[in-house]
Amino acid sequence: MHGALEAGERVLLIDPKERRYLLTLMSGATFHTHAGVLTHDDIIGGDEGRMITGSTGRQFLVLRPTLSDIVLKMPRGAQVIYPKDLGAILIAADIGPGQRVLEAGVGSGALSMTVLRAGATVVGYELRSDFAERARANVTATLGPDMPYRIEIRDVTEGIDEVGLDRILLDMPEPHKVIPAAATSLRPGGILLAYLPTINQTALLRQALDDAGVPFGLSETQEIMRRTWHVEARSVRPDHRMVGHTGFLTTARRLSA
Asked: 103 φ, ψ to 5°?
């Protein structure tokens, strides 16, 4: 989206201490922060990338949020997958336009939004209805109501109705229990990807993939680290804080028997 900012759009505000705020513009509304009060009408109709002065004289940078900004600031029902992992998932699972993707569990919808924006069609299996509603709301708020997105309240370990899937993405504690169903639901050449927080869970999954034999091959596990740098005049060093371990990504290809 380009041009002037409009009522109903979400914007990102960055204050003088680089604190970030995500809000939806509404005519006549105000936004209160420790650094002052802003009126939405001062933002509506203007361009992004400009500075807005609050009631205390402090200035705020106004931008349209990136998907990464939205993921980190949106309402959550469950812990979201971090942007550094979302990007890696797109590449590791080779997500692209027109693919049919099954996602189980959908959490707060961060992965759903990322996959949908890459052009795929997504059906989600989720055990908790509150998580499903939160994911739907976040996807709709970010991408609109017409996305090819459907969530079913069901347990993926009890079976998968869809067949000929291009990708299966699993963000759940026991993905090894999904392997038998995935073997019949993925098309030959399709990719299974699981996101797990611990190496013990990952080792259990890898063993289950090995035991499955011919249906799966080319198994691979990776961990993504992200380290930003402080660069200011002669002070050039790694930042003191970094997003280190968040999870392990394991992929496998569905082979033809």
From this structure: -125, 130
Q: What is the DSSP letter of 244?
A: -
**Are the C-beta atoms of 219 and 206 separated by less than 8 Å?**
yes
Q: Which CATH class is domain 69-254?
A: alpha beta
For 102-156, what is each residue's pLDDT tens digit? Answer: 999 998 999 999 999 999 999 999 999 999 999 999 999 999 999 999 999 999 9
| Antiparallel, parallel or unpaired: β 149-153 and 121-126 | parallel
Q: Angle between the 110-117 and 83-92 helix axes, to the nearest 10 degrees? A: 50
pLDDT digits over 173-222, tens only?
999 999 999 999 999 999 999 999 999 999 999 999 998 777 999 999 99
pLDDT score of 1 more than 70 = no
Write down the CATH number for the domain with range 10-65.
3.10.330.20
Tokens 């994911």 correspond to what residue?
135
Beta bridge partners of 196: 248
pLDDT digits (tens, 9 = 90+) for 9-23: 899 999 888 889 999
Half-sphere exposure of 13 (CA within 13 A, CB side): 27
Nearest Cα to 97, choosing from 120, 126, 125? 120
Domain positions in the chain are: 10-65, 69-254
The Cα–Cα gap between 108 and 146 comes to: 18
135-154 as b/e, with b when 16 or more CB fall inside 10 Å?
bbebbebbbeeebebebeee
Q: Provide the token pair at 75.
A: 């309402």
